[in-house]
Specification:
214 residues, alpha/beta, binds NADP nicotinamide-adenine-dinucleotide phosphate
Length: 214
């Protein structure tokens, strides 16, 4: 089963929907059980063949084998510190891009550990953190009629976890997973996310990345 911390937000719900459509069982986590159930029923309506449930974040972390962090950056550290024992031994996928917006322009919030992903790994020493999906727009994920057309760069210090998340990413039609190497590279992907948002604003578009030359 795949869990989503903060899965009631657009990014977590969008990823839960896309993975439910591929046949994965999903559990949508929230701080509030009623909000979790509501998000789960929205996903279940669009993916009727899948097993979809809502739960408090603690239960979602406990039940799932792979757990996505789909929280705002400011909430990540305190949330992970309180959930760390539920996440021990698991693969944890961090989709967080630590961004702030001034007059509509996105920039990176400098994380003391170097990136949101490294911060997550520091908060979860007993988990295998994998950074991925930071550049994939929730807007696209939430509409099952939109074909996601993008690479996903997957970074982790754990080779096996990285491979596992690359295979999971490629279950979503239109996504190609790129091996991004160690977690130290995740900060560059977080920065590219800010760049894409600023390009989107200038072109009134929704852009994505493709790596060429491989
Ligand atoms: N939106 C996008 O297009 C997009 C694309 C790529 C990556 N991302 C990344 O994905 C993450 C989630 O994005 P989002 O737009 O879905 O975020 P969001 O809607 O702002 O937040 C997601 C969920 O986090 C929970 N939450 C909010 N504040 C919290 C707090 N202080 N403590 C604990 N939980 C809290 C809320 O769930 P409950 O109230 O139900 O607990 C909320 O529904 C972000 O880090 C973002 O950088 C987003």
């Amino acid at each position: 089963m795949i869990g989503f911390l903060g899965g009631t937000g657009p990014e977590g719900r969008g990823l839960a929907l896309r993975l439910a459509l591929t046949g994965e069982d999903v559990v949508i986590g929230s701080r509030d059980a009623a909000r979790a159930d509501e998000a789960a029923s929205r996903v279940a309506k669009l993916a009727p063949a899948a097993f979809v449930m809502g739960a408090l974040n603690e239960e979602a972390a406990e039940r799932a084998d792979i757990v996505f962090i789909a929280l705002p950056y400011a909430a990540q550290k305190p949330a992970l510190q309180s959930l760390s024992r539920h996440l021990a031994g698991k693969v944890v996928v961090d989709v967080v891009a630590p961004l702030r917006f001034r007059k509509g322009v996105a920039s990176i919030v400098p994380a003391p550990e170097g990136s949101a992903a490294l911060e997550a790994q520091a908060a979860l020493p007993g988990s295998r953190v994998v950074a991925a999906f930071q550049t994939i727009s929730a807007h696209d994920l939430l509409d099952p009629n939109v074909k996601v057309d993008s690479d996903v760069i997957v970074c982790s210090d754990d080779e096996e976890a990285r491979r596992q998340v690359m295979a999971l990413s490629e279950k979503i039609e239109g996504i190609r997973a790129i091996d991004g190497g160690g977690l130290a590279n995740a900060g560059y992907v977080e920065g590219v996310t800010a760049l894409l948002l600023n390009i989107n604003r200038r072109y009134r578009a929704r852009t994505a990345i493709r790596i060429v030359g491989i």
